[in-house]
Write a structure and sequence with these properties.
CATH superfamily of the largest domain: Enolpyruvate transferase domain
Number of domains: 2
Number of helices: 12
Shape: globular
Low-confidence stretches: none
CATH class of the largest domain: Alpha Beta
Strand order of the largest sheet: 22-23-1-24
Mean pLDDT: 96
């Protein structure tokens, strides 16, 4: 599906979707508990459906339940992961979080598990796990990417991983190491990146009664013999998704985003600070963050701990005075698409001078972009970032493959129109 946008400033209020990152974590923690839990305030997306599908494949009961939040879904879980009769298959879709989180959980379940994927998922690196498997005696068979089949038991003890590939490997191991009979230690062998995502994991685990110690950066001590606590849990709002609406609010309208928690481990919470630094009129009242028309200016943006913000900040930079440099962003080349190349390509089509560097972008802003036809690259964040700055286009903006937003935010176009956007679907 393509979307044709008639440029128009957005205005009004919208509730942020629940955090996709935290939803993965809350569902996994609930699934690892033996008792019944309810995880509420879930914004359903393809990635979340992939995690639910895989947890069911590992023996967990997960069923929809009425939600206390309008327009959201709750899920009732129970039984924990269990040994199944015969091999298990975990279809991970295009979700890197699902794949990397579930591999250690599959080993803990005692099953022989085959992991499959779609899109570019098979191109995303798994080598840190392969090194662990060889060291710990876990059997695995891997094609050139996916499918991957793994079987064996993870023993307690010391685990070493490089911290400059993805924090998801650390989270995957952290979920299961507390359940083992003995104590464990998890150590990064390099300077660790995106550490906020690991803090999100340990925060979710703590809410479910599981303790980890982080005595120094890049090192975790995990007492063994623990158990996840069941209960009722609600997922917090997503700062990375709210960022699209805040950027749009700076471009001639006024947009308030509700449901963004002030106290959060989400690294993407820095969006407010970055927008203020760019000269944006941003105001916070409780869990509502508002952005209104501003003359934004370029700045230097370090994306090390907020890689998901790169597309929307690149788009905003293209219509901000002066030069913006995005640094420490090499890892976003390994997402649903090469996001540095994708944003450089599409913003160039719209008339913005963009220099692509190995680990970032240099963007010279323009008052207006040209409009025209751009590609969503089958990447939800690319399509949403381009839509967020459509008000600064001189003519209609056509986004090809705009239905890719279903991966994380299926209601994006509905919310876009609710804020006054003119977006027409084209087959």
């Amino acid at each position: 599906m393509d979307i044709c946008i008639t440029p128009r400033a957005l205005h009004g209020s919208v509730r942020a979707p629940s955090s996709k990152s935290m939803t993965h974590r809350e569902l996994i923690c609930a699934a690892l508990a033996r008792g019944e839990s309810v995880v509420d305030n879930v914004s359903v997306s393809k990635d979340i459906e992939a995690t639910i599908r895989c947890l069911r494949a590992l023996g967990t009961s997960i069923e929809p339940a009425p939600s206390a939040y309008p327009g959201r879904q709750a899920y009732r879980t129970g039984g924990g992961v269990q040994k199944q009769e015969g091999p298990a298959v975990c279809p991970c879709g295009e979700s890197g979080s699902t794949l990397r989180f579930l591999i250690p959980i599959g080993l803990y379940s005692g099953n022989c598990v085959t992991y499959t994927g779609e899109g570019r998922l098979g191109e995303r690196p798994l080598s840190p796990y392969y090194a662990v498997f060889r060291e710990k005696g876990v059997g695995y068979v891997a094609a050139d990417g996916l499918p991957l089949t793994a079987e064996g038991a993870l023993p307690p003890g010391r685990y070493e991983l490089p911290g400059d590939v993805s924090s998801q490997f650390f989270s995957g191991l952290l979920f299961v190491l507390p359940l083992l009979a003995g104590d464990s230690e998890l150590v990064s062998t390099t300077e660790i990146e995106s550490e906020s995502y690991i803090r999100m994991t340990t925060a979710a685990m703590a809410r479910h009664g599981v303790r980890t110690d982080n005595p120094e950066r890049g090192r975790w001590v995990i007492p063994g013999g623990q158990a996840y606590r069941s209960g009722r849990f609600s997922v917090e709002g997503d700062w990375s998704q709210g960022a699209f609406w805040l950027a749009a609010g700076l471009l001639g309208g006024a947009v308030a985003v509700e449901g963004l928690p002030e106290r959060s481990e989400q690294g993407d919470r820095v969006i407010g600070d970055i927008l203020l630094r760019m000269g944006g009129a941003v105001r916070t009242e409780g869990e509502t963050v508002s952005a209104s028309a501003s003359d934004t200016a370029g700045t230097v943006i370090d994306a090390e701990d907020c890689p998901d913000l790169v597309p929307v900040l690149a788009a905003l930079a293209a219509v901000s005075r002066g030069r913006t440099e995005i640094i420490h962003a090499a890892r976003v080349r390994l997402k649903e698409c090469d996001r540095l190349h994708a944003m450089a390509s599409e913003l160039t089509k719209l008339g913005a001078p963009v220099e692509e560097k190995p680990d970032g972008l240099v963007i010279d802003g323009r008052d207006m972009l040209s409009g025209g036809t751009v590609d969503g690259w089958n990447d939800h964040r690319i399509a949403m970032a381009l839509a967020a700055v459509s008000a600064r286009c001189t003519g209609p903006l056509v986004i090809r493959g705009a239905d890719c937003v279903k991966k994380s935010y299926p209601a994006f176009w509905e919310d876009f129109r609710r804020l006054g956007g003119l977006a027409e679907e084209r087959d």
